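The following record pairs a protein chain with its ligand, zinc ion.
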Amino acid sequence: MRTLLSHAWVLTMDDEGTMFRDGYVLIDDGTILETGASSPSVDADLTVDCKGGILLPGFINLHCHAAMIPFRTMGDDCPDRLRRFLFPLENEALTPHLVYLAAKYACLEMLLAGITTFVDMYYFEDRVAEACLETGIRGYLGETVISQPSPSARTDQEGLSLTRQFIRSLSGEKMVHAIVAPHGTTTVSAEVLRSCSDLSQSYEIPLTLHAAEMDYEMASFAEKGTTPVMFLDGLTAVHPYLLAAHCIHLSQQDISVLAHKGASVAHCIGSNAKAGKGVSPVSDIFKAGVPFGFGTDGPSSGNTLSLFDQMRLFAVSQKTKYHDRSLFPAKDIVYAATRGGARCLHLENCAGQIAPGYHADLVLVSLDGPHMFPVYNPYSALVYAANASDVSMVITDGKIRVRDHCLTDFDLLKVRSDLYKAMGAFMHSAEQYRDII
Ligand SMILES: [Zn+2]
């Protein structure tokens, strides 16, 4: 099926920063056929008038725990929430069915915000894969491996074997891909971290974990005279498939190791700043040549599953941290949210750009909102003015998932009501933490 998207302000995100003010994109099934300055007279099965809106590659969310929707707004201001109630409540109340319904809701929320690909780590990821396949979002999904009992595995070895099974079960899938996801540098034993890294390298799939994020994590490595990144490097876990999430606390040596070994960083400013953990030295990371992109983190840590929020927070935090208004122009920030994410996942040849042969994963941002006028620079409008609610159309794999700001195949309120009904036991368990949440 051929779809012609006409009258769009096309941002191709190519090397030259090409844009077409009144441009078009022609799609054939799941692939972009061509793009250019004025709409051609071609026979298309469907023509969509983009009415001058900004059309760009879909956003890539590099770090998420999609199925944590039931935890949203729970204990947002509570210190050490991970150990005080998140881990215990997960172990007590998380079920595969709840994960499926919550992930489905999160996938739809992400699509509405223009996210077409996301990286996820959580429990019962086979159910998250099901939610991705049903909703049409692309997922890079990792079963969390952790050296303590978890909702899906009693031991880290069991978590590893779930990961191996998951990799085999998703082989050959187009929209969902298995990755390796040990929880973090202090929550997984060195031996298991090494096995995770070996698994990632042998299958040539991403390895993602929380790293250089927590104060207690930094203190525990400092006592041993090292850092989380140097520790990972000692396990040969710093390599081109490593996508290290957070990386708030990095030394210059850490940054050069990440750069020399070809690793990437998933920067999650919303969740980091909300938790008061600090602001990652992304300008130094970028200057060293380490690929980076943005992660929303889970809906319990970052609250919104929108990269618009991350782009704006990123701009203001980096400019403030380095006292430099000219740092990271808006165009570079939109690049990080799209093509940067593709680079971190080794998808630079098929995602993150509007170019012939690339995935037809596209987002149309409407200029109809009062805050979207005038627009001298579309990148600035995306970073400093736009919100997820300005996303009017989303296409993944050539299919329209969102049109006129609404989901084409789902009633979000119905999905929400199904999820709410399934949250009864979870909310009952949460009662015991009432004082802190
Ligand atoms: Zn996380």
